[in-house]
Amino acid sequence: MTNGARRSRLKQKVKSHLPKDWLTELRITYRICIETIKGVAQAGLINIAIITTMAAILTIFGAIFRTTLSVSSMVGAMGSVLEISAYLKPDADINQTVKQIKELNHVKGVKYISREASWAELKREIEMPDVQNPLPDTLHIKVDDPKNIELVMGEIKHVNGVSDLSYAKDLVTKFQMINKISHTITLVVVIIACILTITIINNTIELVIQSRKEEIEIMRLMGVSNWYIKSPLVLQGAIYGFLGALVAIIPINIVQGYLQKMHEFFMMPAYSYSQGLVVFSVLLIGVAFSAGGSFMSIKKHLQV
User: Fold this and answer.
1) Running DSSP on this structure, what letter comes out for residue 109?
2) Which residues pair with 141 in a beta bridge?
3) Alpha carbons 56 and 34: distance in angstroms, whole number
4) Residue 232 contacts residue 39 (beta carbons within 8 Å)
5) What is the pLDDT of residues 14-69, one digit of tens each?
6) Which pTM was predicted?
7) What is the distance in angstroms between the CA of the first residue and the CA of the last residue of the chain?
8) 8 Å CB contact between 137 and 88
9) For the chain, what is the total number of helices (H) and then of strands (E)?
10) Which residues, 6 or more positions from 148, have their beta carbon under 8 angstroms from its beta carbon?
11) Burial class (CB in 10 A: 0-12, 13-18, 19+), 28
12) 84 backbone dihedrals φ, ψ, rounded to 5°
């Protein structure tokens, strides 16, 4: 095959994948946008009720989701300062014991506190009688994650030179419980928000379909494609979700401001990406599930 023939076949192949009339495609897209705006305009004052309801639902979701991120951040920060206290035997080789503990998995750091330093600190805080120092040498051990404390403690027990261990078990348990509860509440709210969003948009698009029943029937008899009829309705639902999300961002930002002040008060860092993540999640849920509700309504009530 000659180069000219190859070139000719390649051109034909490329042309077959290009729109035959891009201007026609542009006109169709323009008409779909006009039909979408027309559908929103025809709803009139109902738009306010729909957008307000959507905004209320998304505000509740966004506020709880943002609170969950703050709780998770604070639990992580508090958990990172929790330490295991390992009390050493009087004849323990301190350097060897520290080395063995540092080599354990999930150990983030080991700090040695001499018995003299502990006794001096205790006497500064409490008035003590003139007695011999009863305190042992102590190692303060940081773990990479609070959930690994029990595992690390089990391994430290077998380290030579360690006589006893302690840590704030109740505090760790409460931190973990609060974190689980906040995540569970967020998941439940997401499910409820999705169900309400789909239900509201489903009913709204059903009303739109009923009000435009004759117009849709005429378009169908004229041979207008199904996607041309359905697309404006799906986009209309997505617009409701998008506008509801935009309105919801205002009170959510107020909540975020208060939560940021709480982090500053407790001197605990917040997730740097939390604000953007919440806004993105609210927009995504608003648009995606509103469009999904529209599509479900179309499949159920629009026979094209």
Assistant:
1) E
2) 84, 110
3) 28
4) yes
5) 445 444 555 666 776 777 777 778 777 777 777 788 888 889 999 999 998 888 88
6) 0.65
7) 48
8) yes
9) 10, 4
10) 106
11) middle
12) -90, 130
